[in-house]
Amino acid sequence: METLDCENLLCPLPVLRARKVLMGLASGAVLRVRTTDPMARIDLPHFCAEAGHHLLETRGDGRVTEFTIRRK
Length: 72
Prior knowledge:
It is built from two helices and four strands; from the N terminus they run E-H-E-H-E-E. By secondary structure, the protein is of the alpha+beta class.
């Protein structure tokens, strides 16, 4: 599983960077995205739904939210 650190980046950068990394991964590969932007809780699930990727998990510890995404 690859991890993408998007901490301290604001919208739309976490989505744009996740999209770029996912485009380079094989179908079925899993990407973990770490972000501190509260808008990512809305933006990343929406991006996954629009692009056809599967959002496996969203979890947060207060400051950092991690998204686990399986590439379509």
